[in-house]
Design brief:
Length: 148
């Protein structure tokens, strides 16, 4: 799947939240967004921005025990964190396939842990530390979805 790439340089957590709002504005129900990046690269911070865009009733948090958080907003936001997953098939048993067709947006942290289950045509973010408060965010958008 050909994906168009662009890069956003974030200089603060607030800028990453604002970027999350901007990207959320491009999403449609049932879209999947794969969030790659090391610990503290800003994946959950980005999801906070998505929640703000959709007027969600909760702010995004890193789930301690749950793998899947659902936030109620204008459309449902399914926030999946695969960090603690023991086996990729565990996510299937938790109803992953149903979340893909539930009319919400699906945001996945540590998608590499469930690579085989990630839809090929999903949008991808790759987040990297470039300094204490700066992050490079590479965005890959499937070409058929391009709005440029
Ligand atoms: N430019 C930035 N973008 C995102 N987070 C930042 C940035 N600068 C500093 N931070 C801080 O880095 C941490 C990122 O945490 P979090 O979003 O939970 O990361 P992850 O979910 O990738 O593990 C937060 O404490 C946040 O305040
Ligand atoms: Mg996180």
């Amino acid at each position: 799947m050909n994906k168009e790439k662009f890069t956003f340089e974030s200089k603060s957590a607030e800028a990453t939240i604002a970027f999350g709002k901007q990207i959320a504005a491009r999403l449609k129900p049932n879209d999947v967004l794969a969030l790659y990046g090391d610990l503290a690269s800003g994946k959950t911070t980005f999801v906070k921005g998505v929640n703000l865009f959709y007027h969600a009733d909760q702010t995004a948090t890193s789930p301690t025990f749950t793998l899947i958080n659902e936030y109620r907003g204008d459309i449902p936001i399914f926030h999946i964190d695969c960090y603690r997953l023991r086996h990729p098939d565990e996510i299937i048993m938790l109803g992953f396939e149903d979340y893909l067709n539930a009319g919400g947006v699906v945001l996945i942290e540590w998608p590499e842990r469930i690579e085989a289950h990630i839809p090929q045509n999903c949008m991808e973010l790759h987040m990297k530390h470039t300094g204490k408060h700066s992050r490079q965010i590479d965005v890959y958008i499937p070409e058929k979805r391009s709005v440029k």
